[in-house]
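pasting Myb/SANT-like domain-containing protein for the record, 111 residues
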Amino acid sequence: MAKTKWTEAMVETMLRILYEQVLQGERAENGFKKKAWTAAKEGLRVIHNIDLEASQLKAKWSNLKKDYDTYTAIKNNSGFGWDNIQGVPTAPDSVWDAYLKAHPEAEKFCL
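structre below
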């Protein structure tokens, strides 16, 4: 199975459909029900003409959750500010350097 190149539009479509599925009760305690993944898979096929496996959608969801957790940790960390114009966390280089040494996964949020 080839690695999928997700576009912003594809991610937005998946998230919108999964949100609609939550509103319809298709979320269990430990994640989404099969019907939710099927709906997201079908929506991506129809809207973006891409045929993905549920496992690919689940992997993307898992990565998005990890990114959100990393982002939240940065935002709530002492020493970081917020740039309202760019919508990104800010900090002096010394703060970023120390943080990235302990949390290399956060590099994508460092501008």
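DSSP finds four helices and four strands in the chain.
Strands lie at 27-28, 31-32, 81-83, 88-90.
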